[in-house]
Amino acid sequence: MSLPVEVDVVIVGGGVMGASAAFHLAEAGVSVILFEKNELASGSTSKAAGGVRANFSDAFNVALGARSLDLFAKFNDRPGYEIDLHRAGYLFALTKQEDVDLFEKSTEIHRSFSVESHMLTPDEAKKISPLLETSDVLACSFTPNDGHCTPEAVVLGYARGAKQLGATILTGVEVTNIVVVDGEITSVETTAGNVKTHTVINCAGAWSPQIAAMVGLDLPVTPYKRELVITEALDESFADLPAQMPMTIDYSSSLYWHREGKGLLMGFSDKSTPVGFDLMRDPDFLEKLGEIAIHRAPRLMDVGIGKGWAGLYEVTPDHNAILGEFTKVSRFFYATGFSGHGFLQGPAIGEILRDLYLDKQPFVEIKQLSADRFQGSGQLRPEYNIV
Question: Domain FAD dependent oxidoreductase spans what residues (predicted)?
Answer without folding.
Answer: 8-356
